Fold this sequence. Notes:
four-stranded parallel sheet, Rossmann fold, 373 residues, alpha/beta, five-stranded mixed sheet
Amino acid sequence: MKFFIVTLLSVFFVHGAQAKPLELIDLAGRKVTVETPVSRFGLSEGRYIATLSLLRENNPVEGLVGMMSPLKWTHPVLEQKLFSKFPKAKNIPVFGTKGADSVSAEKIIDLRPEVIILGLGDHGPNSKAKELIDQLEAAGIKIIFIDFRQNPLKNTLPSLKILGQLFGAEERAQAYIDFYQDRMDTIRTRLENVIDKPKVFLQVHAGRRECCWGMADGMLGPFVEYAGGNNIADKIAPGPTALHTHEFLLLENPDVWIATASGTIPEFESGALPVTTGAGVTAQIAEESLTRYLTTSEFQAMDAIRNGRAHSFWHNFYNSPLNIVVLEALAKWIHPTLFKDIDPQQTLNTLYNRFMPVEIDGTYFATYRHDKL
Length: 373
Protein backbone atom coordinates (compact mmCIF):
# COMPACT_ATOMS: atom_id res chain seq x y z
CA MET A 1 0.00 0.00 0.00
CA LYS A 2 2.83 2.40 0.88
CA PHE A 3 4.46 1.77 -2.47
CA PHE A 4 1.11 2.38 -4.20
CA ILE A 5 0.64 5.73 -2.47
CA VAL A 6 4.18 6.84 -3.24
CA THR A 7 3.67 5.87 -6.88
CA LEU A 8 0.47 7.89 -7.09
CA LEU A 9 2.17 10.89 -5.53
CA SER A 10 5.01 10.55 -8.01
CA VAL A 11 2.62 10.51 -10.92
CA PHE A 12 0.81 13.52 -9.47
CA PHE A 13 3.95 15.58 -9.12
CA VAL A 14 5.26 14.59 -12.55
CA HIS A 15 2.04 15.72 -14.19
CA GLY A 16 1.89 18.80 -12.01
CA ALA A 17 5.39 19.74 -13.06
CA GLN A 18 4.27 19.77 -16.68
CA ALA A 19 1.91 22.68 -16.02
CA LYS A 20 3.43 26.10 -15.64
CA PRO A 21 1.94 29.50 -14.87
CA LEU A 22 1.84 31.90 -17.80
CA GLU A 23 1.22 35.61 -17.37
CA LEU A 24 -0.02 37.32 -20.51
CA ILE A 25 -1.79 40.45 -21.67
CA ASP A 26 -4.83 39.55 -23.73
CA LEU A 27 -6.31 41.59 -26.56
CA ALA A 28 -8.55 43.50 -24.14
CA GLY A 29 -5.41 44.68 -22.33
CA ARG A 30 -6.13 42.48 -19.31
CA LYS A 31 -3.32 40.82 -17.37
CA VAL A 32 -4.18 37.14 -16.92
CA THR A 33 -2.23 34.34 -15.27
CA VAL A 34 -3.16 30.82 -16.35
CA GLU A 35 -1.70 27.35 -15.94
CA THR A 36 -0.47 26.07 -19.30
CA PRO A 37 -0.92 24.06 -21.35
CA VAL A 38 -4.66 24.47 -20.85
CA SER A 39 -6.47 21.13 -20.52
CA ARG A 40 -10.15 22.23 -20.24
CA PHE A 41 -11.42 25.25 -22.14
CA GLY A 42 -14.44 26.82 -23.79
CA LEU A 43 -14.93 28.97 -26.89
CA SER A 44 -17.29 31.82 -27.63
CA GLU A 45 -17.77 30.71 -31.25
CA GLY A 46 -17.38 27.36 -32.95
CA ARG A 47 -15.62 29.05 -35.86
CA TYR A 48 -12.49 29.29 -33.67
CA ILE A 49 -12.06 25.54 -34.07
CA ALA A 50 -10.72 26.32 -37.55
CA THR A 51 -8.04 28.48 -35.93
CA LEU A 52 -7.22 25.79 -33.37
CA SER A 53 -6.85 23.36 -36.28
CA LEU A 54 -3.92 25.43 -37.54
CA LEU A 55 -2.16 25.07 -34.20
CA ARG A 56 -3.25 21.62 -32.98
CA GLU A 57 -3.39 19.34 -36.01
CA ASN A 58 -3.23 16.14 -33.91
CA ASN A 59 -6.58 17.02 -32.28
CA PRO A 60 -7.91 20.59 -32.53
CA VAL A 61 -10.75 19.98 -30.07
CA GLU A 62 -8.90 18.09 -27.34
CA GLY A 63 -9.94 19.62 -24.02
CA LEU A 64 -12.77 21.67 -25.55
CA VAL A 65 -15.62 21.27 -23.06
CA GLY A 66 -18.13 23.66 -24.63
CA MET A 67 -18.77 26.48 -27.10
CA MET A 68 -21.49 29.01 -27.74
CA SER A 69 -22.24 27.96 -31.33
CA PRO A 70 -21.35 24.92 -33.44
CA LEU A 71 -18.74 25.02 -36.17
CA LYS A 72 -21.33 24.04 -38.80
CA TRP A 73 -22.87 27.53 -38.76
CA THR A 74 -19.81 28.90 -40.53
CA HIS A 75 -17.76 25.86 -41.65
CA PRO A 76 -20.16 22.92 -42.19
CA VAL A 77 -17.83 20.96 -44.47
CA LEU A 78 -14.86 21.43 -42.14
CA GLU A 79 -17.04 20.25 -39.25
CA GLN A 80 -17.91 17.03 -41.06
CA LYS A 81 -14.26 16.40 -41.91
CA LEU A 82 -13.23 16.95 -38.29
CA PHE A 83 -16.06 14.70 -37.08
CA SER A 84 -14.78 11.99 -39.39
CA LYS A 85 -11.21 12.31 -38.18
CA PHE A 86 -11.96 13.12 -34.51
CA PRO A 87 -15.32 11.43 -33.65
CA LYS A 88 -15.38 12.79 -30.09
CA ALA A 89 -15.84 16.28 -31.54
CA LYS A 90 -19.49 15.36 -32.22
CA ASN A 91 -20.19 15.38 -28.48
CA ILE A 92 -18.92 18.83 -27.55
CA PRO A 93 -21.70 20.69 -25.70
CA VAL A 94 -23.10 23.95 -27.05
CA PHE A 95 -23.97 26.51 -24.37
CA GLY A 96 -25.72 29.12 -26.49
CA THR A 97 -26.95 30.01 -29.95
CA LYS A 98 -25.80 32.79 -32.29
CA GLY A 99 -25.72 35.70 -29.87
CA ALA A 100 -24.20 36.80 -26.58
CA ASP A 101 -27.66 37.10 -24.99
CA SER A 102 -28.10 33.33 -25.26
CA VAL A 103 -25.15 32.68 -22.94
CA SER A 104 -25.34 32.49 -19.16
CA ALA A 105 -22.55 32.14 -16.66
CA GLU A 106 -24.25 29.09 -15.15
CA LYS A 107 -24.11 27.18 -18.43
CA ILE A 108 -20.39 27.78 -18.71
CA ILE A 109 -19.58 27.12 -15.04
CA ASP A 110 -21.36 23.75 -15.21
CA LEU A 111 -18.84 22.67 -17.89
CA ARG A 112 -15.90 23.40 -15.54
CA PRO A 113 -13.46 24.99 -18.01
CA GLU A 114 -10.17 26.31 -16.70
CA VAL A 115 -10.22 28.99 -19.39
CA ILE A 116 -12.80 30.43 -21.74
CA ILE A 117 -11.61 32.12 -24.93
CA LEU A 118 -13.77 35.01 -26.10
CA GLY A 119 -13.61 37.38 -29.05
CA LEU A 120 -12.88 41.02 -28.37
CA GLY A 121 -15.96 41.98 -30.34
CA ASP A 122 -17.47 39.01 -32.15
CA HIS A 123 -20.96 37.49 -32.11
CA GLY A 124 -20.52 35.92 -28.68
CA PRO A 125 -19.90 37.57 -25.31
CA ASN A 126 -17.29 40.29 -25.75
CA SER A 127 -15.11 42.51 -23.59
CA LYS A 128 -18.11 44.63 -22.57
CA ALA A 129 -19.97 41.69 -20.96
CA LYS A 130 -18.97 42.78 -17.46
CA GLU A 131 -21.57 40.81 -15.52
CA LEU A 132 -20.68 37.55 -17.26
CA ILE A 133 -16.96 38.20 -16.85
CA ASP A 134 -17.34 38.90 -13.14
CA GLN A 135 -19.39 35.74 -12.57
CA LEU A 136 -16.94 33.51 -14.43
CA GLU A 137 -13.92 34.96 -12.68
CA ALA A 138 -15.66 34.53 -9.30
CA ALA A 139 -15.98 30.85 -10.19
CA GLY A 140 -12.25 30.63 -10.85
CA ILE A 141 -12.51 30.55 -14.64
CA LYS A 142 -9.85 32.51 -16.50
CA ILE A 143 -10.99 34.64 -19.45
CA ILE A 144 -8.80 35.32 -22.46
CA PHE A 145 -9.79 37.74 -25.22
CA ILE A 146 -8.51 37.32 -28.76
CA ASP A 147 -9.44 39.20 -31.94
CA PHE A 148 -9.56 38.31 -35.61
CA ARG A 149 -12.62 40.51 -36.29
CA GLN A 150 -12.48 44.06 -34.98
CA ASN A 151 -8.96 44.93 -36.07
CA PRO A 152 -7.46 41.91 -37.84
CA LEU A 153 -4.53 43.83 -39.34
CA LYS A 154 -3.31 44.64 -35.85
CA ASN A 155 -4.61 41.73 -33.78
CA THR A 156 -4.37 38.55 -35.85
CA LEU A 157 -0.74 37.78 -35.06
CA PRO A 158 -0.88 38.67 -31.33
CA SER A 159 -3.99 36.49 -31.01
CA LEU A 160 -2.21 33.56 -32.63
CA LYS A 161 0.73 34.02 -30.29
CA ILE A 162 -1.57 33.91 -27.26
CA LEU A 163 -3.29 30.74 -28.48
CA GLY A 164 0.08 29.12 -29.10
CA GLN A 165 1.10 29.90 -25.53
CA LEU A 166 -2.15 28.59 -24.06
CA PHE A 167 -1.91 25.21 -25.77
CA GLY A 168 1.82 24.65 -25.76
CA ALA A 169 1.95 25.20 -29.52
CA GLU A 170 4.38 28.13 -29.57
CA GLU A 171 6.56 26.74 -32.36
CA ARG A 172 3.62 26.00 -34.63
CA ALA A 173 2.07 29.41 -33.93
CA GLN A 174 5.37 31.10 -34.72
CA ALA A 175 5.66 29.18 -37.99
CA TYR A 176 2.25 30.46 -39.04
CA ILE A 177 3.09 33.97 -37.86
CA ASP A 178 6.29 33.94 -39.92
CA PHE A 179 4.38 32.74 -43.00
CA TYR A 180 1.72 35.43 -42.50
CA GLN A 181 4.22 38.21 -41.86
CA ASP A 182 6.23 37.32 -44.95
CA ARG A 183 3.11 37.67 -47.12
CA MET A 184 2.24 41.01 -45.50
CA ASP A 185 5.78 42.31 -45.99
CA THR A 186 5.75 41.37 -49.68
CA ILE A 187 2.58 43.37 -50.26
CA ARG A 188 3.78 46.36 -48.26
CA THR A 189 7.16 46.46 -49.99
CA ARG A 190 5.74 46.32 -53.50
CA LEU A 191 3.32 49.14 -52.76
CA GLU A 192 5.82 51.50 -51.16
CA ASN A 193 6.19 53.71 -54.24
CA VAL A 194 2.68 53.30 -55.65
CA ILE A 195 0.79 56.59 -55.90
CA ASP A 196 -2.30 55.53 -57.86
CA LYS A 197 -4.89 53.98 -55.55
CA PRO A 198 -7.92 52.66 -57.45
CA LYS A 199 -11.34 53.26 -55.93
CA VAL A 200 -12.71 50.09 -54.31
CA PHE A 201 -16.05 49.08 -52.84
CA LEU A 202 -16.02 46.05 -50.55
CA GLN A 203 -19.56 44.70 -50.21
CA VAL A 204 -20.60 42.33 -47.43
CA HIS A 205 -22.83 39.26 -47.94
CA ALA A 206 -23.64 40.12 -51.57
CA GLY A 207 -27.13 38.91 -52.40
CA ARG A 208 -27.93 37.96 -48.83
CA ARG A 209 -28.44 41.50 -47.58
CA GLU A 210 -29.99 44.47 -49.26
CA CYS A 211 -27.65 46.47 -51.44
CA CYS A 212 -25.21 47.60 -50.48
CA TRP A 213 -23.52 46.98 -47.14
CA GLY A 214 -19.89 48.04 -47.28
CA MET A 215 -16.93 47.30 -45.00
CA ALA A 216 -14.90 50.34 -44.04
CA ASP A 217 -13.09 51.15 -40.82
CA GLY A 218 -13.02 47.73 -39.20
CA MET A 219 -13.12 44.02 -39.98
CA LEU A 220 -11.67 43.51 -43.48
CA GLY A 221 -12.26 47.11 -44.55
CA PRO A 222 -8.70 48.30 -43.73
CA PHE A 223 -7.32 45.47 -45.88
CA VAL A 224 -8.36 47.54 -48.92
CA GLU A 225 -6.02 50.40 -47.98
CA TYR A 226 -3.20 48.02 -47.06
CA ALA A 227 -3.60 46.38 -50.49
CA GLY A 228 -3.18 49.72 -52.23
CA GLY A 229 -6.80 50.72 -52.76
CA ASN A 230 -9.02 53.65 -51.85
CA ASN A 231 -11.99 52.32 -49.87
CA ILE A 232 -14.81 54.62 -50.99
CA ALA A 233 -17.07 53.60 -48.09
CA ASP A 234 -14.56 54.75 -45.50
CA LYS A 235 -14.81 58.47 -46.20
CA ILE A 236 -18.58 58.72 -45.67
CA ALA A 237 -19.31 55.98 -43.15
CA PRO A 238 -16.38 55.51 -40.81
CA GLY A 239 -17.26 52.30 -38.99
CA PRO A 240 -17.04 48.56 -39.57
CA THR A 241 -20.09 48.33 -41.86
CA ALA A 242 -22.75 50.67 -43.22
CA LEU A 243 -25.58 50.56 -45.76
CA HIS A 244 -24.98 52.42 -49.03
CA THR A 245 -27.35 53.01 -51.93
CA HIS A 246 -26.99 52.05 -55.58
CA GLU A 247 -26.89 55.78 -56.27
CA PHE A 248 -23.79 56.11 -54.08
CA LEU A 249 -22.04 53.36 -56.03
CA LEU A 250 -23.02 54.87 -59.38
CA LEU A 251 -21.82 58.31 -58.28
CA GLU A 252 -18.52 57.05 -56.90
CA ASN A 253 -18.18 54.54 -59.76
CA PRO A 254 -15.47 52.34 -58.17
CA ASP A 255 -12.68 50.92 -60.28
CA VAL A 256 -12.91 47.62 -58.42
CA TRP A 257 -15.97 46.00 -56.82
CA ILE A 258 -15.39 43.12 -54.40
CA ALA A 259 -17.93 41.07 -52.47
CA THR A 260 -17.86 38.62 -49.61
CA ALA A 261 -19.76 35.48 -50.61
CA SER A 262 -21.84 33.61 -48.04
CA GLY A 263 -24.21 31.71 -50.32
CA THR A 264 -24.63 27.94 -50.22
CA ILE A 265 -24.95 25.39 -53.01
CA PRO A 266 -28.67 24.72 -52.24
CA GLU A 267 -29.34 28.48 -52.44
CA PHE A 268 -27.56 28.69 -55.78
CA GLU A 269 -29.46 25.70 -57.14
CA SER A 270 -32.77 27.26 -56.06
CA GLY A 271 -31.98 30.43 -57.99
CA ALA A 272 -31.43 32.58 -54.90
CA LEU A 273 -29.11 35.59 -55.15
CA PRO A 274 -26.44 35.12 -52.44
CA VAL A 275 -23.07 34.96 -54.13
CA THR A 276 -21.59 31.51 -53.51
CA THR A 277 -18.07 30.28 -52.79
CA GLY A 278 -16.51 27.85 -50.30
CA ALA A 279 -15.99 24.17 -49.64
CA GLY A 280 -17.70 21.91 -52.17
CA VAL A 281 -18.39 24.81 -54.56
CA THR A 282 -17.17 24.39 -58.13
CA ALA A 283 -15.50 27.21 -60.05
CA GLN A 284 -18.51 27.25 -62.37
CA ILE A 285 -20.98 27.75 -59.51
CA ALA A 286 -18.83 30.48 -57.94
CA GLU A 287 -18.58 32.34 -61.24
CA GLU A 288 -22.21 31.90 -62.23
CA SER A 289 -23.49 33.04 -58.84
CA LEU A 290 -21.42 36.21 -59.11
CA THR A 291 -22.63 36.84 -62.66
CA ARG A 292 -26.24 36.25 -61.63
CA TYR A 293 -26.00 38.84 -58.89
CA LEU A 294 -24.40 41.50 -61.09
CA THR A 295 -26.83 41.38 -64.01
CA THR A 296 -29.05 44.24 -62.76
CA SER A 297 -28.86 47.55 -64.64
CA GLU A 298 -27.52 49.38 -61.59
CA PHE A 299 -24.42 47.19 -61.44
CA GLN A 300 -23.99 47.02 -65.21
CA ALA A 301 -23.58 50.81 -65.35
CA MET A 302 -20.50 50.68 -63.10
CA ASP A 303 -17.01 50.75 -64.62
CA ALA A 304 -15.81 47.95 -62.32
CA ILE A 305 -18.46 45.62 -63.75
CA ARG A 306 -18.12 46.68 -67.39
CA ASN A 307 -14.35 46.31 -67.21
CA GLY A 308 -14.45 42.87 -65.59
CA ARG A 309 -12.97 44.07 -62.31
CA ALA A 310 -15.60 42.57 -60.04
CA HIS A 311 -14.68 39.73 -57.71
CA SER A 312 -15.85 37.68 -54.75
CA PHE A 313 -14.23 35.71 -51.93
CA TRP A 314 -15.51 33.37 -49.24
CA HIS A 315 -17.07 35.40 -46.43
CA ASN A 316 -15.70 33.22 -43.65
CA PHE A 317 -12.12 34.22 -44.27
CA TYR A 318 -13.24 37.07 -42.05
CA ASN A 319 -12.75 36.51 -38.31
CA SER A 320 -9.99 34.02 -39.05
CA PRO A 321 -6.20 34.02 -39.37
CA LEU A 322 -6.76 32.68 -42.89
CA ASN A 323 -7.55 36.32 -43.72
CA ILE A 324 -4.05 36.63 -45.18
CA VAL A 325 -5.33 35.08 -48.41
CA VAL A 326 -7.92 37.87 -48.64
CA LEU A 327 -5.17 40.44 -48.36
CA GLU A 328 -3.34 38.78 -51.24
CA ALA A 329 -6.52 38.58 -53.33
CA LEU A 330 -7.28 42.26 -52.76
CA ALA A 331 -3.75 43.27 -53.72
CA LYS A 332 -3.93 41.18 -56.91
CA TRP A 333 -7.37 42.52 -57.88
CA ILE A 334 -6.52 46.15 -57.13
CA HIS A 335 -3.03 46.08 -58.71
CA PRO A 336 -3.13 43.11 -61.11
CA THR A 337 0.14 43.89 -62.89
CA LEU A 338 2.13 44.48 -59.71
CA PHE A 339 0.89 41.23 -58.16
CA LYS A 340 0.51 39.06 -61.25
CA ASP A 341 2.71 36.37 -59.69
CA ILE A 342 0.59 36.18 -56.52
CA ASP A 343 -1.97 33.38 -56.32
CA PRO A 344 -4.17 33.52 -53.19
CA GLN A 345 -5.65 30.10 -53.96
CA GLN A 346 -2.15 28.62 -54.00
CA THR A 347 -1.40 30.36 -50.70
CA LEU A 348 -4.56 28.83 -49.23
CA ASN A 349 -3.54 25.40 -50.51
CA THR A 350 -0.11 25.82 -48.93
CA LEU A 351 -1.63 26.81 -45.59
CA TYR A 352 -3.86 23.74 -45.59
CA ASN A 353 -1.00 21.45 -46.58
CA ARG A 354 1.31 22.83 -43.89
CA PHE A 355 -1.04 23.48 -41.02
CA MET A 356 -4.52 21.97 -41.32
CA PRO A 357 -5.41 18.38 -40.32
CA VAL A 358 -7.80 18.01 -43.28
CA GLU A 359 -7.56 18.53 -47.03
CA ILE A 360 -8.97 21.54 -48.81
CA ASP A 361 -11.62 21.42 -51.52
CA GLY A 362 -13.92 23.89 -53.20
CA THR A 363 -13.61 27.35 -54.75
CA TYR A 364 -12.94 30.38 -52.56
CA PHE A 365 -12.46 33.18 -55.11
CA ALA A 366 -14.28 34.20 -58.27
CA THR A 367 -14.02 36.89 -60.94
CA TYR A 368 -16.94 38.25 -62.94
CA ARG A 369 -16.78 37.33 -66.62
CA HIS A 370 -18.57 40.16 -68.42
CA ASP A 371 -17.90 38.46 -71.76
CA LYS A 372 -20.23 35.61 -70.77
CA LEU A 373 -23.39 37.69 -70.59
